[in-house]
Design goal:
Number of strands: 6
Mean pLDDT: 84
Number of helices: 3
Low-confidence stretches: 1-22
Radius of gyration: 18 Å
Helix content: 25-40%
Order of helices and strands: EEHHEEHEE
Strand content: 25-35%
Shape: globular
């Protein structure tokens, strides 16, 4: 599901094919958080702007929830992108399921508290905009736009 290495042609005459390390698509929530933190930190350094710790924390939580939901409910992560545009970070996670995310009721029909079911409401609360897009090859892509200030 996730590649750690990719074989690519190189223009050097000595070697026609080289094996090189590439950043793999995150397969776990921790890897998604690292990718978001890296993208936001690089942008803050490049623009000489301070990183808002609370805003970064919100973006990390959104990335973690989206990837966790893709793993638990969507058949696994098929693609992941993070971009920083101006004062927002866009986190996109694709999975194999075409089913739309839903918020579960916190209690079951017998009145017992259910574990879990908090991820989607957290994403919707922290993100400025959330879009769910059907993919031509099947599955869906969820993009959340989280403010950085």
């Amino acid at each position: 599901m996730c590649e750690e290495h990719r074989t690519e042609a190189t223009p050097t005459p000595e070697l026609s094919i080289a094996r090189r390390r590439v950043r793999p698509r995150p397969c776990r929530p921790a890897e998604a958080r690292q990718a978001v933190e890296r993208a936001v930190s690089e942008r803050c350094r490049a623009t000489h702007t301070p990183c808002d710790a609370q805003a970064l924390s919100d973006a990390l939580l959104v990335a973690s929830e989206l990837t966790t939901n893709a793993i638990l409910h969507g058949g696994g992560i098929t693609d992941f992108h993070v971009t920083v545009e101006g004062r927002v970070v866009c986190v996109s996670v694709s999975d194999r399921s075409a089913a739309l995310p839903v918020a579960k009721q916190p209690v079951d029909p017998q009145g017992r508290w259910r574990p879990g079911g908090h991820g989607w409401p957290i994403v919707c609360r922290l993100a400025r905009d959330v879009r769910v897009t059907d993919l031509p090859s099947g599955g869906k892509c969820i993009t959340a736009v989280v403010p950085l200030s």
